């Protein structure tokens, strides 16, 4: 069965799923929600457990909730550590990245300048030193062991936003993290994704208007 992601044509809570799908090398199609009528029909279909998207249809499953989708893909494609202890670390670092990224998610519905001010003054000083220390003390290629995990891809989403919205110079004080980030971006599958059609652009007024019109 073909894999399909249903969401709006923007980043939001769907972009991490796209990054993970790219990371595991899985081909998929996307269906974009563009009208209120389309959204109402999808809710009537019974595919949405909580009447929320993103929705990933894969392996005969209809999965919602970004975290659940991420973990399903991680378990299926061996991106969840090699034992229970490593899986616990993957969870900790992944959840930290979700807290970090929350300020960028908020830019759809709140003032972008206020969000970026909080990102620069609060979130970057809180989270970048933590991940710098993890990489420094772990002495491994990735956050957990020598294999890429959803913790790495969750952090990648955050660092892409830092570079795009705040500038790479904010990483200059974290040389290990900066080098790690550059290596992640250079991985074949990630590099291809970042240059390809599945990578969504930053929010536009048109995108925000569509989200408000369709989902709310």
UniProtKB/TrEMBL annotation:
Residues covered by the GST C-terminal domain: 83-204
Task: Name any one GO molecular function.
Answer: glutathione transferase activity
**Alphabetic keyword roster:** Transferase
Q: Which PROSITE patterns match?
A: GST_CTER (PS50405), GST_NTER (PS50404)
Q: Which Pfam families match?
A: GST_C_3, GST_N
One GO BP annotation is: glutathione metabolic process
Ranges of residues in domain GST N-terminal = 1-81
* PANTHER family (UniProt xref): GLUTATHIONE S-TRANSFERASE (PTHR11571), GLUTATHIONE TRANSFERASE (PTHR11571:SF230)
> What family is this?
Belongs to the GST superfamily. Alpha family.
Q: What is this protein called?
A: Glutathione S-transferase alpha
Traced from the root, the source organism's taxonomic lineage reads: Eukaryota, Metazoa, Spiralia, Lophotrochozoa, Mollusca
